[in-house]
Every structure is written in structure tokens, then in C-alpha cells.
Design a protein that fits this description.
CATH topology of the largest domain: 2,3-Dihydroxybiphenyl 1,2-Dioxygenase, domain 1
Number of domains: 2
Shape: globular
Distance between the termini: 45 Å
Number of helices: 4
Helix content: 25-40%
Strand order of the largest sheet: 3-6-5-4
Number of strands: 9
CATH architecture of the largest domain: Roll
Largest sheet: 4 strands, mixed
Length: 180
């Protein structure tokens, strides 16, 4: 790996961490507003934050395992693919919509490669799912696809959750509780 590739990798790592931090910060603020009954969004409305408004929040990350990642999130987890694009300046991508939400996940791949390894075992995407039987069905489907449960770094996630790594090593937790 040459010096430029190392700089690109470190930059990718920093940007991904920043995006996850921004996502978790904004998500906590939105959840707090919902809890306090101060936010009642209907489709197409804006989310008002302290200094700006947003129509949607999208977390995007690159992958070199594009096909496997699509299969993991679409067939395994069951997210709905809302858009797919090809040829945009050498990029292709897929956007998944989370049901009843203005939150999206986007995965991209560049024709020259898109290496961006998972930064730590505690960078997580968490689905709060109150129905245990749905978690059991999902975990079985993932296991049938070859994705087995992994030991979480933070034992809190094991108390009521199941952690599985996606094809890139990013961890997804299916937590048996509601959050809001």
C-alpha cells in the first residue's frame, strides 16, 4: 500500500466515523423530540433541528463487496431498495429505505475500488425490534445465508440483542426492545 492509499484509507476512516457520530447525534435529538411529543412528522415534512431543517437523513458508505452487501441488507435483513444508480462518475450505488422513516442507508462502489474497512467492533447499526419472534426469524434467515451471530464488544448488546457482521465487517444489532 503506497502513501496516497494510506492517506485515502485514513480519510475514509475519519469520514465514516464522523458520519456515524452525526447520525447518532441527530437520531438521539429526533428520538427525544418524539418522546416529548414535540415532533409529529408526516411524510414530506421537514425535521427541524436547532440550526437547520432536513427532509431526510442518509448514511452512506463505500464497499468493495457491493453485491454481497445488497444481498445482506435486502434479502437478509429485509430492507426495501428504494433506488439504485450506475455510472455516476464511476460510482454505482443502492439506497435502502427504512420502513416508516426518513432515514436511508446508501452503499456505493467505485470502478477503481472502494476500500473502507469497519473501524471498530463497536461501530453499530442498531434495529430496535420489540417482537422477539421477528428477531429469531431474521437471525435464522441470516444464519442460513452464512452470517452467524458474533460476540459484541460491549456486552450490553448481548443482554437483549443479537449482533451480526455484514460482508464488510460492519456490525448490525437486532435489539429486542423499543427505544422511543
Amino acid at each position: 500500500m503506497n502513501k496516497i492509499q494510506k492517506i485515502e484509507l485514513v480519510t475514509c476512516f475519519v469520514l465514516i466515523n464522523l458520519l456515524w457520530y452525526m447520525y447518532s447525534y441527530i437520531s438521539r435529538k429526533v428520538q427525544k423530540l418524539y418522546k416529548e411529543k414535540k415532533l409529529d412528522l408526516k411524510e414530506g415534512e421537514l425535521m427541524d433541528f436547532r440550526n437547520f431543517s432536513a427532509a431526510q437523513i442518509r448514511i452512506a458508505r463505500p464497499t468493495d463487496k457491493f453485491t454481497e452487501v445488497i444481498q445482506f441488507y435486502e434479502e437478509g435483513i429485509g430492507l426495501t431498495k428504494i433506488e439504485e444508480f450506475h455510472g455516476t462518475r464511476g460510482y454505482k450505488g443502492v439506497i435502502f429505505g427504512l420502513p416508516h422513516s426518513d432515514y436511508h442507508l446508501e452503499f456505493t462502489s467505485h470502478e477503481n475500488g472502494s476500500p473502507c474497512p469497519a473501524p471498530t467492533k463497536d461501530n453499530l447499526l442498531v434495529f430496535y425490534m420489540p417482537a422477539k419472534n421477528e428477531i429469531n426469524q431474521l437471525v435464522k434467515r441470516m444464519d442460513d445465508m452464512g452470517y452467524e451471530e458474533v460476540e459484541p464488544e460491549n456486552e450490553y448488546w448481548k443482554e437483549k440483542g443479537v449482533t451480526i457482521e455484514d460482508p464488510d465487517g460492519w456490525r448490525v444489532v437486532f435489539m429486542n426492545r423499543s427505544y422511543v
